[in-house]
Design a protein that fits this description.
By secondary structure, the protein is of the alpha/beta class. It is built from eleven helices and 15 strands.
């Protein structure tokens, strides 16, 4: 899959841009805060219907303006397609694929797969279980529409059960009706998570070794209440009185986590900055290969300021990995032109570089696209 061109109007600090992209590597050079990451966030939005940075839609509209538009033209399975998102203050966003508005935005997830690598990925190691669940859900949802539907149903039923607990509802039959919906969704979610984490972990270990060039052993271990052998319905029933006291659901797949270890020790406690950066990069590269394997599409790969806190050896090995045919179209930002030039020197040519300043994009090296 290729993003052929992108047009933005009033998206964050970008008043207007119209860019045609290389089908391989596209580099954006500039100081921090000039708009490089904002461009990547717009591309991310077109795949996920939301900002990678977690910003609400009104916050994506350039200050002082009433609307924002992002328009991307893609080549997907040899068919040209266009995605257009329109944001307006105080109005519902418009999201169209080839001129047709989506009935539900969840129908779009996974059709235009994308992997984003950013400094905030360190939270996969240091953050809460919610961060790691979100990562896992994002990986699987792009490859499994049934999983996403089950996740939506589970979260809706979970919200309903928590509301009943807060309101001190006492009717056991009402709880059973909601918990039945949760159980049906949870069983599928747990099964798929357990299967997918095994495959993801296998790919991840290979990328970690390639980047680190060490014998360190990283592991991803799936932790879930449902792995303990009891049915989810039984667990909910046993914990119902406790949940009434707590006024929320204390057990379930919304409490799942991925334990991340390095040489059998918690990575958050023992990994150096370089090891932690290597860990998260390997996770994202594994996510890319996993998605390509499952969807038979080459996702877009967005690399935002990935070389910080890495020694020269790891930087060189990452450059070599990125320049291989394993990856399809790549968008990469950096403040150091040397990194970008070295990556391009490893490819067969046809790559592009832009200088970015105050939301404006000036071609430096622009082949015939």
């Amino acid at each position: 899959m290729i993003l052929q061109s992108l047009q933005l109007t009033n998206f964050k600090n970008i008043a207007h841009c119209s860019l045609d992209f290389s089908p391989k590597i596209n580099c954006f050079l500039g100081d921090n805060g000039v708009g490089k990451s904002n461009l990547l966030d717009a591309i991310h939005y077109l795949s996920f219907c939301k900002s990678f940075a977690g910003l609400s839609d009104p916050m994506l509209i350039k200050r002082g303006e009433d609307f924002a538009i992002a328009r991307g033209r893609y080549l997907r399975r040899d068919v040209e397609e266009e995605l257009v998102v329109g944001l307006a203050a105080g109005k519902r966003k418009s999201f169209k694929r080839s001129g047709k508005e989506y009935r539900r935005l969840s129908e779009h997830i996974g059709l235009f797969p994308l992997v984003m690598v950013a400094p905030a990925d360190i939270e996969l190691i240091n953050g809460s279980g919610e961060v790691r669940r979100r990562f896992l859900d994002m990986v699987i949802s792009q490859a499994d529409a049934r999983y996403l539907e089950a996740l939506i149903r589970y979260n809706q039923a979970l919200t309903q059960r928590n509301s009943m607990l807060r309101d001190a509802v006492g009717d056991a039959n009402l709880y059973l009706a909601v918990e039945m919906q949760m159980e049906m969704a949870a069983e599928y979610i747990h099964k798929v998570r357990a299967e997918r984490i095994d495959r993801l972990s296998e790919i991840f270990g290979r990328y970690y070794a390639a980047i680190s060039d060490t014998r360190e052993t990283p592991r991803l271990i799936y932790r879930s209440h449902l792995s303990e052998g009891r049915s989810f319905g039984e667990l909910l029933n046993v914990n119902r009185e406790r949940d009434r006291i707590l006024r929320h659901t204390s057990i379930g797949i919304h409490r799942d986590d991925i334990e991340m270890t390095l040489d059998d020790m918690p990575a958050r406690q023992t990994a150096s900055q370089g090891q932690a950066k290597t860990y998260t990069l390997a996770l994202r590269f594994a996510q890319y290969e996993f998605l390509r394997e499952i969807t038979s599409l080459s996702p877009l790969l967005l690399l935002d300021d990935i070389f910080d806190k890495l020694d020269a050896g790891r930087v060189e090995r990452i450059m070599q990995i990125v320049a291989t045919d394993t990856f399809g179209q790549i968008f990469i930002t950096d403040t150091n032109r040397r990194h970008l030039d070295e990556i391009i020197s490893l490819t067969d040519g046809g790559d592009a570089i832009w200088q970015v300043s105050d939301g404006q994009f000036t071609p430096i090296n622009q082949p015939n696209l």
